[in-house]
Write a structure and sequence with these properties.
Elements lengths: L5 H17 L5 H16 L4 H20 L5 H35 L17 H17 L8 H9 L1 H4 L7 H9 L5 H34 L7 H32 L17 H7 L2 H12 L9 H19 L3 H20 L1 H4 L4 H20 L3 H11 L16 H4 L2 H15 L2 H6 L10 H23 L12
Helix pairs in contact: 1-2, 2-6, 3-4, 3-5, 3-6, 4-5, 9-10, 9-19, 9-21, 10-16, 10-17, 12-13, 13-14, 14-16, 16-17
């Protein structure tokens, strides 16, 4: 089940909200936990048992870590190591065992084990694993106390708005909200608005652009004209942003409907003036996780300049590999790590001297290039795609090289989605702040009317679109 489905919109969500608000306040956590487990079991009926069992083990280990005195360093570390082994071991096996087996088989001259690239696929394992890892590390460091009960910890791990694709939430940021939170009409309406905004981003913008990207990347790359290659990666560049930011909006909105406040995960990344700023605005929860639990333990900025750059590069290499068991993702991570290390060497003062418009254009171009590695099926495909992006000879008469008319590729709906994506994706922060779009609630009656009208239009248009399209999961479900 996904948020952008008629089943969720018109069955699961209304039923859940009715039961949640009809229940006494002391029972609402239990209702939320039961609904979260049902939501996950809908797609993963077997692995929901693993989710529960592993979470209970982590909770028991965290209690023991907190009970031991700080002087019992070896025993405390051994308990944390056991938790990390269970969680990261499952993650590595599910996501990477097939990849490593395939690479070993190739190295031994046996060809390819294509059927073994994925042994077990557990939805959301990357995200709920990171939730549990951050919890255990924070308990070990003394940054947070263990949850008061196993039920509260299970709710933190399994809460359905962020269970499958994030954002990555720290226990210390929601512990007080799990214990007791405010439920109000204003917060509920703010959540509805945020949810509908994400629904529109996903269904009305990301999905039609994704159809174009899928068509182009599935074509024979050798006959792909230059304009088709560029429009394909441009559509994917906006698709992945509006898809993942749309999911984050919906998760934040659902949380607000339940009284929770989750931290932001995206902040208009395509207006960034450099790659460093881009990663402060893109998938913020993952960037913060990698900084706190990998970059800083490696030494962070407390080491020599060259070592700090190497640490940064290694962190993004790991980030690339986290996204998937493929050399494409490893190269993508190394690419961004190299750009960040280069910018670190240049220094923020010099970077800030670059005119804003030039900085935004250059950064967007560099990010777009990186998305080719992210979207292509393998490195050979990516390199060939780059070749077609530079094939100026195919610009003159692209229709003669491919059996896909431009008018069929770029219909009115797709063109409209691309224009809306480009305009809204590049509008500066000041524009949104001036008109109050960043506010949870509108400041004026006119603003409230505008939100109601736009929210209603999004819901109606999205419903019509969902009724006429096949299953379209969020991109980050695969990670």
């Amino acid at each position: 089940m996904i948020f952008s489905s008629l089943l969720f919109l018109y069955a699961f969500l209304p039923l859940f909200l009715a039961l949640y608000y009809l229940a006494p306040a002391t029972w609402r956590n239990s209702v939320a936990l039961a609904a979260s487990l049902a939501f996950y079991a809908w797609g993963e009926p077997v692995f929901v048992l693993w989710l529960i069992l592993s979470s209970l083990i982590d909770y028991a280990l965290s209690l023991r870590v907190a009970q031991l005195p700080p002087t019992a360093v070896r025993r405390r570390r051994s308990l944390v190591a056991l938790s990390l082994t269970i969680n990261l071991g499952a993650l590595v096996y599910c996501k990477y065992a097939g990849f490593f087996s395939d690479q070993l088989y190739r190295l031994l001259g046996g060809g390819s084990l294509q059927d073994a690239t994925v042994l077990i696929k557990i939805a959301g394992i990357s995200f709920f694993t990171f939730h549990k890892v951050s919890y255990m590390m924070d308990v070990y460091r003394g940054a947070t106390r263990p949850s008061k009960s196993a039920g509260e910890f299970l709710l933190y791990v399994c809460l359905f708005p962020q269970l499958v694709a994030g954002p990555i939430i720290r226990y210390r940021d929601v512990a007080a909200q799990i214990a007791g939170r405010e439920h109000s009409l204003d917060r509920f309406l703010a959540g509805v608005w945020r949810f509908l905004l994400g629904l529109g981003r996903k269904v009305l913008i990301a999905d039609p652009l994704g159809l174009v990207a899928d068509k182009i990347f599935s074509l024979d790359v050798g006959s792909l004209p230059m304009p088709y290659a560029w429009i394909g990666i441009l559509c994917y560049t906006f698709q992945i942003y509006f898809d993942f930011a749309g999911y984050s909006d919906m998760a934040i909105g659902l949380g607000r409907m339940m009284g929770f406040e989750f931290l932001e995960n995206f902040n208009r990344p395509y207006i960034s003036r450099n790659i460093t700023e881009f990663w402060r605005r893109w998938h913020i929860s993952l960037t913060n996780f990698m900084r706190d639990y990998l970059y800083i333990p490696l030494g962070g900025n407390r080491v020599s300049p060259w070592r700090a750059k190497l640490n940064l590069w290694l962190v993004f290499l790991a980030s690339g590999f986290w996204h998937g068991a493929s050399w494409n993702f490893i190269v993508w991570g190394a690419y961004h790590g190299s750009l960040l290390s280069l910018e670190k060497g240049i220094g923020p003062q010099r970077l800030n001297r670059v005119p804003a418009l030039i900085g935004v254009i250059l950064t967007f171009f560099l990010v777009l290039i990186g998305w080719v590695f992210f979207r292509a099926t393998d490195l050979t495909h990516a390199l060939a795609f780059f070749g077609q992006m530079a094939d100026t000879a195919s610009w003159a008469n692209p229709g003669s090289r491919i059996d896909l008319p431009w008018s069929e590729l770029m219909g009115r709906r797709t063109l409209c989605a691309l224009v809306v994506a480009a305009v809204t994706g590049f509008l500066p922060d000041a524009f949104w702040q001036r008109w109050g779009w960043d506010d949870a609630l509108p400041a004026t009656v006119r603003g409230a009317i505008a939100r109601v009208a736009l929210g209603t239009a999004i819901l109606l248009l999205a419903t019509a679109a969902l009724a006429n399209q096949s299953y379209s999961p969020f991109i980050y479900f695969r990670f």
